[in-house]
Amino acid sequence: PVRLLLVLALLWPAIGWGAELMPLGGAPWEPGPDSPPPQETAANELQFSLPFHQSLDRVYWDLPIRPIPRQAGGITLDITCDNPAAIRAITLYVQSAGNWLAATAIPAAGRQTLFFPGADFRAEDSHADWTRANRLRLSIWRGAGRSATLILHGIQTDSPPIAVITATSATAPGQEALAKECAQRARRLFEKVGLLTTSLTDDFTKITPRQQAWVVLPYNPTLSRQHLKLLERYVKRGGRLAVFYNSHAPLAAQLGFDVRAYATQRETWSTVAWTTNAIEGLPSLMAHITQHLLPVRAADAPAITLGHWLNPDDRLDRDLPAAAVSPNGLWFSHVPPLATPGAVQWLAAALAHADPTIAVIRDRHQAERRERDAQAAATAAKLRPAANEIRGVWSPPISASVRSKLMCQLAENKVNALFEHIGSLRDDLPANPARQRQISRAIAQAHAQNLQYHAWLFCWSWDGYPPPWSSDRFLSNTPGSAPTWLDPQHPANREQLLNTVATLAQLGVDGIHLDYIRYPEWVGETPTAVTDTQRDDLTATVAAVAQQVRDINPAIRLSAAVFPTPDSAAALGQDWPAWLANGALDFASPMIYAEDTSRFAQQLAEAIAVAPKAQKIVPGIGVSADSTQLDALGAAQQMEAAREQKTGGTIFFQLTAELLEILRIQRAD
Questions:
Q1: Could you tell me which CATH number the domain at 384-666 has?
Q2: Which of 514, 511, 413 lies closest to 461 in space, CA to CA?
Q3: Which of 82, 141, 215, 424 would you label with 108, given CA atoms 20 to 30 Å apart?
Q4: So what's the pLDDT on residue 16?
Q5: What is the mean pLDDT of residues 516-539?
Q6: What is the pTM of this model?
């Protein structure tokens, strides 16, 4: 039988451990129907053929396994993937007490480590224990219709010495969904640093420095006296804490920090300015958008305050310290940030300062980032923009005090189109002269820098504000719940949309960009889904919007941010291929948020295939989207892929201080 050897350097050999999942009694992998048997390579590894050029939705192989150690944090696969675009996802199943428990990951190109946390192995209507599994299934799902090969270098259970706590009702009552999302963010952030994590619930009786060198509290706002006592004991015994958005002063004091009073404002904070000489390896800036803060600073030495928030006018606010670090851990003033390059560099620097054993990882990360930035500049230097190509950015609302400066920076970095979020239908733009004047000034400032100004409008999404309109204008997910979506078929909603775009057209915008021009995702998940009539009515509404705009100014370009694949869009009534075919849209912007460039290129090709021509597609690149965060090289490679397919340009999501740095790196003078 083939022995599966994992090449994995454990970061802390004294407390980290792993155990191979060896075939029992020499039993081979058992291929499923239409799945070719794996082949042993000369390097004593396994090669799995993925014949997705055939009409197969998945292939899979089963393996009897040894008992999984109770302390295991998850299962690690060490793989090489030659064509990730051919793979939609990899699902690892374990069979326990007759139940199949599943966890899923998405591979990238080349050799990589995929970690499947034990907490992710779940099955509906089952409380089976994943560590009692006796069988494993490697299931690979079809992406693009082409063949691919996956090399399995090794598979083992692993227990990373960093534990991310997913709050239950005990420490985040009524906010479990938000707590889960924050835990996922934290895990991704640590993984981007190069550190695997395991997932634990908030039963702090089980944590010990012998097993967990770090415990991460991504969102645990309600800590009882007993919780605080257990965490205090953990720290006194040598453990370290990474704490996010927490107001518990006694816990902060134990780490050497002082949590300040809660702060909030109508405008958003979007940037942290780090004090680069505070500790080794800090970036200058980090993007993170919020209206709520629990500022934190060092109380006394050896704790160190790491930086401060910038106000919306780009001035440093000394009353808003952003984070602190000490030998006992680190503390951040909001929830875990997205894993952008700046956030990853900040976390690596803070972890290494608190825990010198991580310094080698920080240094490696910095070296890799410098190398990737150099490659990004070289890639961008080779790119030659096509005539009339859109080089755009989506932007949240821009403060008037920094608008001129930002537009100048965009123009300097070869951006030629700004898609600024100007609001939604609830803002009633036709009845708001003050807001109309603000947009007029923004258009003039954009034109002064030779920037096209596209008004980015949210159509049917309702973001939780109390509705001023009658309830029959809304769709409801659950009876009695707050409205989250305007009914696209309601005549008053349609009239409000037409009046809003007419007002924008009269203000002199270069383009109107529709977003959330679809039904909500929870409608698509229901058995009834979206009907043909609903889909046709939405197509008619987009055509009416186009007619309204062109009657006022035929030079205005109408576009829409859309779901990336025609099938996923159609399920929500968003038949954007028809909107392009009938001439209602000048271009569509599929939000192709994928970190792997080959996956991005494949989805882009699928979008172009249903468009009248490639120039009608201007793909969105997810530099700082919830699901994807790209560095300068990843962004440059996706721009290159778009130009190779002769699209009408690209739009980056979204405008932040970090995106400006990426654009600066890419700029070829």
A1: 3.20.20.80
A2: 514
A3: 215
A4: 40
A5: 82
A6: 0.88
